Structures are given as structure tokens and as C-alpha cells.
Amino acid sequence: MTQAEEAGRKPARVVVADDQTVVREGIVMLLGLLPGIEVVGAAGDGNEAVALVAELAPDVVLMDLRMPRCDGVEATRRIRTEHPGTQVVVLTTYADDESLFPALRAGARGYLTKDAGGDEIVRAVESVLSGDAGLSPSIQRRLLERLSEPAPEPALLPEAPDGLTARETEVLLLIAEGLSNQEIARKLHVSTATVKTHINNLFAKTGLKDRAQAVRYAYGKGLVRPPAD
């Protein structure tokens, strides 16, 4: 018997977000067989997930990460900001640092990989609704490993011009190094959508039009020094 059944609670109302139709329908079918869970909607990308949360006010979203238009990290951030009564449990194929930590920073309270069984999904949903974290054992081990690693020395950033924030300045410096949006996202452990937001903001503040102008701007403001001969 689940905790929800023991406590006599109503089933948890769940939205499933996954861009692969076969996977999404399979998850919905599995959840329909699990005690204590009622699937109230399914979304094919992050934008649809946010819209369904606004419409249905579910208790939990089971969120994939790699989706078109709006990825799971950005959708999680929007849901937790705009609809704090809905919790997010990531259900994804990926357990690497570039996937795990941005999702947790965005507000996900649970993180499972797609090899999780039905009982594990139920436990994760019940955990996040009780105010706890719903993490698979492998994810818990990875977090403990990461916490036990020595913290890197903080990088000293040059003083930011034109009202740029520290993060916008950091993104500007990485653009000047020639990194793509995807590479910047991996380096900063954020989503590509977040990187694009930072770039749009710094372009608006500085009047820049493209990345080439951004590189010239960084050198012109003394944020980057030309390599020595």
C-alpha cells in the first residue's frame, strides 16, 4: 500500500511532458496502472507543458529534458516561477551533470531516469508532494560525489560596463572565446534557452547586433586582451 493510500489522500494529478509520442503514450499507460496517480494531461514540448499546468493546475509534472521549442529545464523554471503549487519530477534518459544540475537549479524536486520502475515513480511523486526530494539512488550518489569534490576557485571577472550583470559579462567573455550557445550552456551548467536570454539582454544593453560585434566590444572595453606575440 502506498503512502497516499495509507493517508487516504486523493490521487496525485500528473501531467506527462515528452516529445516522443511512443514514449509519452507508454508513460501515460504505465501511470494509468499505478496506484495514487491520475494522469490529467500530456504535452509534446515545454511550451505545451507550461500551458497545461496553467490550465489544469496538476500536482506534479513528469518532465523530459531534451524537447524542441522549449526544453525541460526552461519549462521547469517557468512552471516553478509561475505556478509554484505544481512540483516537477524530471524523467529522462540522461543522468550527466549537464542535464542534472541545471534541472535541479531550475526547481525540479525529483529526478529519475527512464529505467525507473513504477514503484520508483510513485515514490518520487509522493516524496515531492510531501516536501521531500524524489531522487533515484543513482542520482543521490552522483549528488553526494559532486558535493564531496573540492570547490573550484571562483573566477575573477572584469568590471562590467553598460550595466551588464556578472552572468551577462561571463557569457560575453565566452562568446569572445568563440564558444557556441550549446558550449556556453554546458560550461555554465544552464540550458541553451537561458544562454539565449543572457545574450539578448547583453545585446539590448550594449546595442550590439551580432556575435562579431560582441567580440569587438569585449576587446574594445578591455574585457579581453589580445594574445601576446
In short:
This protein is of the alpha/beta class and 229 residues long.
The pLDDT mean sits at 85
Report the radius of gyration as a whole number of Å. Answer: 20 Å
The unreliable regions are none
Proportion of helical residues: 40-55%
Number of separate strands? 6
Order of helices and strands: HEHEHEHEHEHEHHHHH
Q: How is this structure best described in words?
A:
It is built from eleven helices and six strands. The protein has 229 residues and is an alpha/beta fold. It has a six-stranded parallel sheet with strand order 2-1-3-4-5-6, with helices on both faces. Strand 3 (60-63), helix 4 and strand 4 form a beta-alpha-beta unit. Helix 3 (46-56) packs parallel to helix 4 and helix 8 (166-176) packs across helix 11 (211-220). The longest helix is centred in the last third of the chain and has 15 residues, at 192-206.
Mind sketching the topology for me?
Layout: H1 3-7, E1 12-17, H2 21-32, E2 37-43, H3 46-56, E3 60-63, H4 72-82, E4 87-92, H5 97-106, E5 110-113, H6 118-129, E6 134-135, H7 137-148, H8 166-176, H9 181-188, H10 192-206, H11 211-220
Parallel strand pairs: 1-2, 1-3, 3-4, 4-5, 5-6
Helix pairs in contact: 3-4, 4-5, 8-10, 8-11, 9-10
Q: Which characteristics define this entry?
A:
229 residues, 11 helices, alpha/beta
